[in-house]
Every structure is written in structure tokens, then in C-alpha cells.
Amino acid sequence: MDKLVPNPRHRELQEVLQKIQARGRTLERALDQAVKQFAGGSVWVGPSANRFGQALTHHRKRLRTTVDETITQVEAELKATDREVHASTLRGGYLN
User: Fold this and answer.
1) What are phi and psi of 5, to 5 degrees?
2) Are 83 and 5 in contact (CB under 8 A)?
3) DSSP readout, 19-65?
4) Considering Cα of 42, then 47, then 49, then 53, what sign does the dihedral take?
5) Is 38 exposed, middle or buried (0-12, 13-18, 19+ CB in 10 A)?
6) CA–CA separation, 74 vs 24, rounded Å?
7) Tens digits of per-residue pLDDT, 6-42?
8) What value does the mean pLDDT of the chain take?
9) Are strands 94-95 and 84-86 parallel, antiparallel or unpaired?
10) In sequence order, what are the residues at sequence separation of 6 or more whose Cβ sits closer than 8 angstroms to the Cβ of residue 8?
11) Any long-range contacts for 6-10 (C-beta under 8 Å, 24+ apart)?
12) What is the pLDDT of residue 92?
């Protein structure tokens, strides 16, 4: 009978998920200080500043949503990927 071996695709997806989680959280926090400074009104004031601050807040929210959606998509793919596969399905360490 064909031996079960770790699925390299599953391992790759785990690594991708870890990287996205770590780097995504860093990206999410990248705009926090700027948004906080604009909200305090001490950086720049006036109508243009208000519009810029609103846009900055919008982009921070959009960035967070995109990171969360990406994590969800990779988690779904990981869940749908077998942890082990039959050795005969591998060629050079990758699925045929």
C-alpha cells in the first residue's frame, strides 16, 4: 500500500499564513500613529486636513479589511488541503 507523507502544499500554506498574519498585523498598525495625530488636530487643521484625515482613516480600515480577508482565504485553502498525501502523488517533493 502507498505510504502517506506530509503534503508540501499544506506546509507551504501554513508558512504563507504565518507570514501574512505577522506582516499583516504590522501593516495594519502602520497608519495608526498618523490617524491618531490627525484626530488630535495638532498636525494640520482646516478643510483640506479634515478630508485628508478622513481618507487616511478610510485607507487604514480598508487595509485592515484586506489583511483579514486574505487571512480568511488562506485559512480556507489550508483547511481544504490534506495534511498528508500518498507518496505516489509526489514528484520531486511536489504534487503531480
Assistant:
1) -130, 160
2) no
3) HHHHHHHHHHHHTHHHHHHHHHTSS--SHHHHHHHHHHHHHHHHHHH
4) positive
5) buried
6) 13
7) 999 999 999 999 999 999 889 888 888 888 888 877 7
8) 89
9) unpaired
10) 90, 93, 94, 95
11) 6/83, 6/84, 7/81, 7/82, 7/83, 7/84, 7/85, 7/95, 8/90, 8/93, 8/94, 8/95, 9/81, 9/94, 9/95, 10/78, 10/81, 10/82, 10/83
12) 66
**What is the 8-class DSSP label of residue 1?**
-
Task: State which amino acid sits at residue 49.
Answer: A
Helix, coil or strand: residue 82: coil
For residue 21, what is its C-alpha cell?
A: 498574519
Cα(16)–Cα(28) distance, rounded to whole angstroms?
17
What residue has cell string 504563507? 16
Question: What crossing angle do the helices spanning 32-40 and 8-30 adopt, rounded to 10°?
Answer: 20
Cell 505510504, residue located: 3
